Amino acid sequence: MPPTSHSLRGAILVAAPQKELCQRIELALSRRGHSVSVCTDAVDALNCSAQLDFDLILVDLCLQEVSSFDLVGQIKARGKREEIVIVSFNATAAAKPSKPHPAEVCLANPFQLDDLVRTVEGALLRRDQFGGIVND
Question: Which of 22, 24, 59, 66 is the most exposed place for a label (fewest CB within 10 A)?
Answer without folding.
Answer: 24
